[in-house]
Amino acid sequence: MSDNITTPITCRDTTWLVSSARDQPLTPQQARQLAAHLAGCAACQVASRQFAQLFAQLDTLLARDAAPDDA
Ligand SMILES: [Zn+2]
Fold first, then answer.
1. DSSP states of 1-62
2. What is the average per-residue pLDDT within 14-39?
3. Residue 1 within any structural domain of the chain
4. What is the pLDDT of residues 30-48, one digit of tens each?
């Protein structure tokens, strides 16, 4: 295995990366793979935008409804 080669990822991988990036920062390689895929995949460009909007709405809802979790 080589860390230097950016392995192409699938649309499914892209979706997973976009959603997991919310919980933890992507590694430089993951970010590179994500950017490379988005550059060539219109479907994922749209999907990632929709994800961002969905997450923004979720954050708004959660901030309003949920008490801060201090535990
Ligand atoms: Zn794609």
1. --SSS-----HHHHHHHHHHTTTSPPPHHHHHHHHHHHHH-HHHHHHHHHHHHHHHHHHHHH
2. 91
3. no
4. 999 999 999 999 999 999 8
Q: How confident is the model at residue 68 (pLDDT cuts 50, 70, 90)?
A: low
**Ligand 1 center–CA 20 separation, angstroms:** 16
Q: How many domains does the chain have?
A: 1
Distance 15 CA to ligand 1 centre (A): 8
pLDDT at 71: 61
**How far is ligand 1, taken at its centre, from the CA of residue 1, in Å?**
24
Residue range of the domain that includes 43: 11-65
Q: And the tokens for 2?
A: 């080589």
